[in-house]
Amino acid sequence: MNGEQSEVKMVSVFDPYFYQTLLSFRLKNVVIQTTKNPIQGSLLTVMPDHVVIEVSNTPFYVRIQEIIWVTLS
Fold this sequence. Notes:
By secondary structure, the protein is mainly β.
């Protein structure tokens, strides 16, 4: 590469309406349908790029881009 450094740019989609909805579900029991499987538990943390859901005292980190839908359980 002749001594040049390449620059890597990260791009992420942010949906403020979905983010606000997830924030309103924080600390409640929810069902999150991901592209793989549904997850049911307590929604502990909501960040712009991921959520943390606790299932049987185990935290699961789920990327928001992997979420299809979410509802209260």
